[in-house]
Write a structure and sequence with these properties.
Elements: E1 3-8, H1 16-21, E2 28-32, H2 38-42, E3 47-52, E4 66-67, H3 69-74, E5 79-82, E6 88-91, H4 94-104, E7 113-117, H5 121-132, E8 137-141, E9 160-163, E10 188-191, H6 200-207, E11 212-213, H7 216-231, H8 238-251, E12 253-257, H9 264-275, E13 278-281, H10 282-290, H11 294-318, E14 323-326, H12 336-342, E15 345-351, H13 363-367, H14 370-384, E16 387-390
Parallel strand pairs: 1-2, 1-3, 4-6, 7-8, 7-9, 9-10, 10-11, 12-14, 12-15, 13-14, 15-16
Antiparallel strand pairs: 3-5, 5-6
């Protein structure tokens, strides 16, 4: 059986092997390559086909023997199949993938002024779909084009924003290509980045109650279509949502929040053991980083310094995927931490009655009444969490 692969310049962030494992039992590899290596790689007969990603979706056009009508019209190829006679045919499965993403996010572009950030191969596909779906105007913002980031203010009236650039992509989490505060007419945001699950651009849009989505649904939908080419068989559309759910369940961090002494560390270790995941305790990271206990940090450097280091350690942990992470009770005191946690996390509030909370070695728990601390934090715990666990039962 021939194997398949993903060709790109940097692929350490890719979920493609995991996604393709949901659609078929075939070998799928990550093939990092420089541009001068593309032709030789494509000619390797042990591969039955490839997916193509940044920055080669336009480059491979000239290396294909045949190109589908859709790919030719767009000017971008993201799937290549090797026929029995060895010829390479290029397709664009991103087209249907992007349509699926817009529909899943309930973002209607008909009659809208759409601004597309970036001018690469993915941008070409997005432009074609937006035009076919009836966008009234499509503006391309690039670093050196007629419309660029220096004069982007001319298009602050854009209603739909689509990011096709890698700005905000792992490991550059937390960055955003534009400030949504400038776009008063914005009605929807799409970011093709899928790692992190929610980029800062998407989180900023959600904070404004705007329809917004990352790129995972598009990635999975186009992979399903690519897999149909690879295996020469039909895959039902319902498998797309199944695969999305499975990928998220395997990659999103489980992040525990709650009052000091609520049992986040103990429960976190149990959850990690059951899920076969790595467990990370933010307090342990702080102690290792500072070379002193948390009470010592509070005593010698103060709470402000502690919170600064806490955020730094949180960033280091949450940029990763597939972890179980226990946070400190005061993590919700800094609004900045919300986006850090939400980018790749399912947030679980560990609830425990105040009279059962342990206070030993917890400076703030000893310096103020627990009921006062809880009143100050409970709304944040509720807002930040996706669900809660009642940890009031005695544990053996």
């Amino acid at each position: 059986m021939k194997k398949f692969g993903l060709i790109g310049e940097k692929l350490g962030h890719s979920y493609s092997p995991l996604i393709h494992s949901k659609f078929g039992d075939y070998e799928y590899e990550l093939c990092e390559a420089k541009e001068e290596e593309l032709e030789a790689l494509l000619k390797k007969e042990e591969y039955g086909g490839f997916n193509i990603t940044i920055p080669y979706k336009k480059t491979v056009l000239k290396l294909c023997d045949e190109i589908s009508d859709t790919a030719r019209a767009i000017g971008s190829v993201n799937t290549i199949i090797r026929s029995e006679d060895g010829k390479l045919k290029g397709y664009n499965t991103d087209y249907d993938g992007f349509i699926y993403l817009l529909k899943a996010a309930k973002i209607d572009v008909k009659g809208m002024k759409c601004m597309v950030l970036g001018s690469g191969g993915a941008s070409l596909t997005v432009q074609t779909v937006l035009a076919d779906m009836g966008a009234s105007e499509i503006v391309i913002i690039s670093r050196k084009g007629e419309n660029n980031y220096e004069n982007i203010n001319r298009h602050f009236d854009s209603e739909i924003i689509v990011n096709t650039t890698p700005v905000g992509m792992y490991p550059g989490n937390g960055r955003t290509p534009v400030n949504l505060d400038d776009f008063k007419n914005c009605r929807g945001v799409v970011d093709l980045i899928y790692n992190p699950n929610k980029t800062k651009l998407v989180l900023d849009a959600m904070a404004k109650s705007l329809p917004a989505t990352g790129g995972l649904a598009m990635l999975v939908a186009q992979a399903k279509e690519s897999s149909e080419f690879f295996q020469n068989k039909k895959i039902e559309d319902e498998e797309i949502e199944n695969a999305i759910d499975e990928v998220r369940s395997e990659t999103l961090n489980a992040i525990l929040i709650g009052m000091p002494g609520a049992g986040k560390t103990l429960l976190g270790k149990e959850i990690a053991d059951r899920m076969g995941r790595e467990f990370v305790d933010i307090d342990d990271m702080i102690v290792e980083h500072e070379g002193m206990s948390i009470p010592e940090i509070f005593e010698k450097k103060g709470e402000s310094y502690f919170r600064k280091v806490e955020t730094e350690m949180l960033e280091q942990a949450c940029v990763k995927t597939g972890l179980v992470i226990a946070t400190g009770g005061g993590i919700v005191k800094k609004k900045l931490n919300y986006n850090i946690i939400k980018q790749n996390g399912v947030v679980i509030w560990i609830k425990r009655d105040l009279d059962k909370l342990e206070t030993d070695g917890r400076p703030l728990s000893q310096s103020m009444p627990l009921d006062q601390m809880y009143e100050e934090r409970k709304d944040a715990y509720s807002y930040w969490s996706d669900f809660f666990i009642n940890n009031n039962e005695e544990r053996e």
